[in-house]
């Protein structure tokens, strides 16, 4: 199969009638133009998940979604854990939910094994109620071109000018 976006391969499959009905409902509810588009999305997700399991050194990008309840100590532990994975955590967004809960979404990129380790470390923190990693094999472009620069003129990501000097 060609890697050109315009090339297509036809897939014929048989499904139980109830599963087929649920698939059509999902296509309609998502407002998609065809079953093929939904099936391709589901396959891409399954392939990214499979790659994370079978090729732990491959680079992946994605999100980690956390729901947690707790005080300042819990937030401190989350921040310390994210700092330990500074190369992998690109950014984070936090919002307060009702009932003393918080939702945090991390944008991550790195080797699959490191992303799994990050999730395991976050999941181990008492008060984390839900955690989900969603990955893709598409990567973020390089955030900064280094052009072979070394030393103080090319600060490492996450370091301030003061810490470089």
Quick overview of this protein structure:
With 165 residues, the chain is α+β, with helices and mostly antiparallel strands. The protein has helices at residues 17-30, 35-54, 72-84, 112-123, 161-164; strands at 59-69, 89-96, 101-111, 128-136.
Name of the CATH superfamily of the largest domain: ACT-like. Chain A, domain 2
Query: So what's the overall shape?
Result: globular
Largest sheet features: 4 strands, antiparallel
Poorly predicted tracts of residues: 151-165
Radius of gyration: 20 Å
Kindly name the structural category.
alpha+beta
- The quaternary organization reads as single chain
How many strands?
4
Q: Any idea of the CATH class of the largest domain?
A: Alpha Beta
Task: Please provide a written account of the structure.
The protein is α+β, with helices and mostly antiparallel strands and 165 residues long. It has two domains: 17-54; 59-136, ACT-like. Chain A, domain 2 (Alpha-Beta Plaits, 2-Layer Sandwich), CATH 3.30.70. Helices cover 38% and strands 24% of the residues. It has five helices and four strands, in the order ααβαββαβα. A four-stranded antiparallel sheet has the order 2-3-1-4. The chain is globular and about 55 Å long. Mean pLDDT is 84; it is low at 151-165.
